[in-house]
Specification:
Layout lengths: L6 H9 L4 H6 L2 E4 L1 H7 L3 E3 L5 E4 L8 E8 L4 E4 L3 E3 L5 E3 L7 E5 L5 H8 L5 H6 L21 E2 L5 E2 L1
Parallel strand pairs: 1-8
Antiparallel strand pairs: 1-2, 3-4, 3-8, 4-5, 6-7, 9-10
Length: 159
C-alpha cells in the first residue's frame, strides 16, 4: 500500500483499510486502576478469557468474560452482551475496545504476563527447567600487570 501525504487518507488506511496483522495489533484495551498499579502499564492486548467491564455505550456497567474477538469487526464480545431481533433470535454484539476496561487478566499465557511485568519473555521457560548446580574450580587470577619497557642511556631495553 502506498503512503499518502494527505492526513485523511493516511488515517483511513490505518483504521478502516488496515491489513489483518495491523488491525489485530490495534485490539488493545485500557487496564483498571488496580492492574495499572500492579503492572505499571496503562493498556494491554485483550485476549479471550480476560475479564472486562464496559464503561461507555448501550451496555454500560456490564462486567463479564471475553468470549470472542473479531478483528474484521474491530470488537470484542463479552458474556451477557446480546441483542434481540424482532423474531426473537439473540445475536452477539461486538463492543469496541476503546469502550472497555480490563478488570482481570487470563494468567494462562506466561509470556504475556512476563511481558506486562517487564521480565524477559523467556523467563517462564527458565523457571520450569530444573536447576543443575555445577561446581567451578577456582583458578588463580592471572597477572594482569603489563610489562613496561624503559630505555637506558645506552639503548638497552629492560623489562
Amino acid at each position: 500500500m502506498t503512503r499518502s501525504a494527505i492526513p485523511r487518507k493516511t488515517r483511513n488506511q490505518q483504521i478502516y483499510y488496515a491489513a489483518i496483522q495491523t488491525a489485530s495489533k490495534q485490539l488493545s484495551c485500557a487496564l483498571s486502576k488496580e492492574l495499572r498499579k500492579k503492572y505499571g502499564k496503562r493498556s494491554a492486548r485483550i485476549i479471550e478469557g480476560d475479564t472486562a467491564k464496559i464503561v461507555r455505550g448501550e451496555f454500560t456497567g456490564v462486567d463479564g468474560k471475553v468470549t470472542k474477538i473479531s478483528i474484521p469487526d474491530r470488537g470484542v464480545n463479552i458474556e451477557g452482551v446480546k441483542k434481540e431481533k424482532l423474531k426473537g433470535e439473540k445475536f452477539d454484539v461486538y463492543v469496541h475496545t476503546s469502550n472497555i476496561i480490563l478488570t482481570g487478566l487470563d494468567s494462562g499465557d506466561k509470556w504475556r504476563i512476563n511481558k506486562l511485568e517487564g521480565k524477559k519473555a523467556t523467563a517462564a521457560r527458565a523457571d520450569e527447567k530444573p536447576k543443575v548446580e555445577t561446581t567451578k574450580s577456582k583458578e588463580e587470577p592471572k597477572d594482569t600487570k603489563k610489562a613496561t619497557k624503559t630505555k637506558t642511556t645506552k639503548g638497552d631495553n629492560k623489562e
